[in-house]
Amino acid sequence: MQSQKPLPSADAAAPRRTRLILKDGSYQVVMSYRIVGDRVRYVSAERGGAEEEIPVALVDFDATHRWERSHSQAEEDGSQSAAPAIDPELLKEEADRAAMTPEVAPDLRLPELDNVLALDTFQGQPQLVPLPQSDGELNHNTGHNVLKAVVNPLSSSHQLVQLKGERSMVQLHVDTPVIYIRLGDAIVPSGSMPLTVDTHGASSAMKDKPGDPAASRYVIVRADVRTGSRIVASFKISMMGNVRQDEDVVDTKMEVLPGGHWMKLTPRQPLIFGEYALMEVLSDHEVNLGVWDFGIHPTAPANRDAILPQPKRPFALSPRRPDQ
User: How many CB atoms lie within 10 A of CB 181?
Assistant: First the structure.
């Protein structure tokens, strides 16, 4: 195969349409293209800016360059109207759409519908595992109480959330799972109401709607596994309403991804094997009793609802009749 001249960088000029001409006489209308190994990767102008690829052997580079030179000269001479440039608003829309489903591992993107997912690795393959939200029940150390129980911030007893079962349905296989939380346009599950804790000793109350996920803090809480249940909220609320961490609360690093649609939550230290839950701290005196529970067990079977990488499919040309 003859060596090809270096292709123009996609960033060398403002985005504009050009033609990538194929050896069968057809062409693709593209915004940019480049050679990567034995493939030509291009941004399609006909399919909403999707990135696609075809084998190098299918592209007629001489015809492509001739078309580019002739149209570039026509623009300079003013003999032909300039090729239409992409509307900046459209480019912004495309960038925002990409930020809604960012790539977190090779060929693995966050989905459009799920709110909270963990990045896991199973048998060497990265996977995104949706974390279902479970409703907890507020309890004191002395017994089982209703959601509107009084929580006294001066008391040394823990505020506890109890989940049924000794093991979560979601079992991760790595000890440092990264958790992604959708922000802004999160879909609020039914029954996911915050519990307002009155720091002056008055009765607790349920709010009408959950808080803004972007303004919340999130903690990973190690569960205390008991007979038939897991206690997943072993932290105290101080007089000022701040969460005082103890040995059951895992320190984390929070980072908002570009575009502001997702928060990335990373444990600052490996998690030991066992059961955990992600809890949302809505404010200095509110927590969300709907928690996202999971376990850490490297020998657990595969998660049924895991999202797998989706490699880009190679471009395939349809057979053409002579009269086409």
Answer: 22
pLDDT, mean over the chain: 73
Backbone φ/ψ region at 154: left (φ over 0), alpha (ψ -120 to 50), beta: alpha
In this structure, the answer to whether residues 30 and 173 fall within a common structural domain is: no
- For residue 51, the domain's CATH number is 2.30.30
* Residues paired with residue 182 on neighbouring β-strands, in sequence order: 262
- For residue 118, the enclosing domain spans 103-296
Domain shared by 77 and 194, yes or no = no
- Is the domain of 289 the same as that of 170? yes
Whether the pLDDT of residue 239 is over 60: the answer is no
In terms of phi and psi (left: phi > 0; alpha: psi -120 to 50; beta: otherwise), the region of 159 is beta
Residue 151, SS3 per DSSP:
coil
Are 122 and 165 part of one and the same domain?
A: yes
Q: End-to-end CA distance of the chain, in Å?
A: 28
pLDDT of residue 84: 58
pLDDT in tens, 240-269: 344 555 567 787 889 999 888 899 999 988
Residue keyed to tokens 């990567």: 36
Residues 127, 226 within the same domain: yes
